[in-house]
Amino acid sequence: MLAGELYRSCGPEIEADICRADRLLRAYNATTAEQADARTALLRDLLGNIGPGTLVRPPFHCDFGFNIHLGRNVFLNFQCVLLDVARIEIGDFCQIGPGVHIYAADHPRDAEQRRAGLESGKPVTIGRNVWIGGGAIILPGRTIGEDAIIGAGSVITRDVAAGTTVAGNPGRVLRPG
């Protein structure tokens, strides 16, 4: 799974990791704003890395958590979903709007492999100081360069160069970097 190769999403190790993430997410999503220290502690247990000054507003959802690496001063608004079967890296000072979905999870294009229950993952990398508008979807294997802007509701099917503004479905360059 972590190497990006085909795998089956079952078995004792994966199930234990999913149960761990589920337990931590339930606790995290049940916290209140007054419980900021408890929230931070739960995120530190859940995620691969969380930089100082980072804020993730519940509810938040992910597969495993340990493949998510958030830089410093990152903001994820309500209802973000990060499917982290492979690494998801979000750079310093990124602003992520409500309901943004970031997918490292992928599925084979071959119907027989899908019927066999095979899946795969492709890492997603988001550079420093990126702004992603609410409801955007970032597909597996994408890289978004630093200082880019992704318009609300966009579906990012290709890499986005640094400093570029992209919007639409599929995402189209509105202003080159």
Write structural notes for this entry.
With 177 residues, the protein is α/β, with parallel strands linked by helices. It has a single domain, classed as UDP N-Acetylglucosamine Acyltransferase, domain 1. It is 19% helix and 29% strand. The strands form 4 sheets. A 7-stranded mixed β-sheet has the order 3-6-9-14-17-19-20, with no helix packed on it. The protein has a 5-stranded parallel β-sheet with strand order 2-5-8-13-16, with no helix packed on it. Helix 1 packs antiparallel against helix 2. The longest helix is centred in the first third of the chain and has 18 residues. The chain starts with 6 loop residues before the first strand and ends with a strand. The model has no long low-confidence stretch (mean pLDDT 96).
The CATH superfamily is known as Hexapeptide repeat proteins
* Highest-level CATH class: Mainly Beta
Largest sheet: 7 strands, mixed
Number of E-state strands:
20
Spatial strand arrangement across the major sheet? 3-6-9-14-17-19-20
Class inferred from helices and paired strands: alpha/beta
Helix content: 10-25%
CATH topology group: UDP N-Acetylglucosamine Acyltransferase, domain 1
The ordered H/E elements are EHHEEEEEEEEEEHEEEEEEEEE
Number of helices, where a helix is a run of at least 4 consecutive DSSP H or I residues: 3
* C-alpha geometry: globular
Total domain units: 1
The rounded Rg comes to: 16 Å
Strand content: 25-35%
Stretches with pLDDT under 50, minimum 5 residues: none
Distance between the termini: 33 Å
**In the CATH hierarchy, what is the architecture at level 2?**
3 Solenoid
Mean pLDDT: 96
